[in-house]
Amino acid sequence: MEEHVVPRPAELDVAEALATAVRELDAAPDVDATVERVVAAAAANIPGTEHAGISLVDRKGIRTVAPSDELVSRIDKSQYQLGEGPCVDAIEHHRTYRTGNLREEPRWPSFGGAAADLGMLSMLSMRLFSGDGTIGALNLYSARPDAFDAHAEHIGELFAAHAAVVLRGSQRQAQFQAALQSRDLIGTAKGIVMQRHGVTGERAFSMLVEASQRSNRKLYEVAEWVVEDVNRAAGRDRS
Predict the structure, then answer these.
(1) What is the CATH architecture of 176-238?
(2) C-alpha to C-alpha distance for 157 and 45, rounded to whole angstroms
């Protein structure tokens, strides 16, 4: 006969807290709000957390977003500059990293000493990733040594998995909206060029592309300039 394991009350509390946190994340209106809610929810629901932040990966490298305070930014900056630390390794090696006392941490001797000097002795860093790759890392901090145990790591990984999916969805929505706005802007600029120069839509688009290439600016930036130039002229006429 199959044995059914009944969750302990503490496990039910954690599951409900995580479910509530994820529902709140999904309701965030944009990427910035989503990131801020991820950080706040992590700090509220993952045991041992005193400070939190997210490191996002883009074409320029790694950057800290929505830190719970300035201390997080300073500690993360030290990791990026030294090229070592739990966050850097979580992103590069696709693993979770939990520390004891950072001042005595042999894996990152330079960073550990720098973090301890800033008053931070424990970290828990978890990679944020979805099906199409790594987004960054969720980083948790404490001034106490050995602040994070295996239970906190387990909860953190569950939370990070949900948060990564929500964050990636928010990023994609933002990219979609930006693409729509760019398309509409280019269409408006094309209409202005057609009216000004008496050319076809195809020729007007070619003229915008040529201007983009000559000025070494993106097409939507050229379109934005054309539209703003018309708006400025209209404003001068009204005055």
Answers:
(1) Orthogonal Bundle (1.10)
(2) 12
Task: Please state which of the four CATH numbers 3.40.1370.10, 3.50.50.60, 1.20.1250.20, 3.30.450.40 is assigned to the domain occupying 9-167.
Answer: 3.30.450.40
Give residues with Cβ within 8 angstroms of 129, minimum separation 6.
Answer: 94, 135, 164
Contact of 38 with 138, CB cutoff 8 Å: yes
What's this model's pTM, rounded to 2 decimal places? Answer: 0.68
Amino acid identity at 203 = R
Contacts 24+ apart (CB under 8 A), 226-230: 226/189, 226/192, 226/193, 227/185, 227/188, 227/189, 227/192, 230/192
How many residues does the structure list for the chain?
A: 239
Per residue of the chain (239 residues), give pLDDT as tens: 444 544 444 444 655 666 666 666 665 567 777 778 888 888 888 999 999 999 999 888 999 988 999 999 999 999 999 999 999 999 999 999 999 999 999 999 999 999 999 999 999 999 998 777 888 999 999 999 999 999 999 999 988 888 888 777 766 776 777 777 788 888 888 898 898 899 898 888 888 888 888 888 888 888 888 888 888 877 666 65
State how far the Cα of 135 lies from the Cα of 65, in Å rounded to an integer. 12
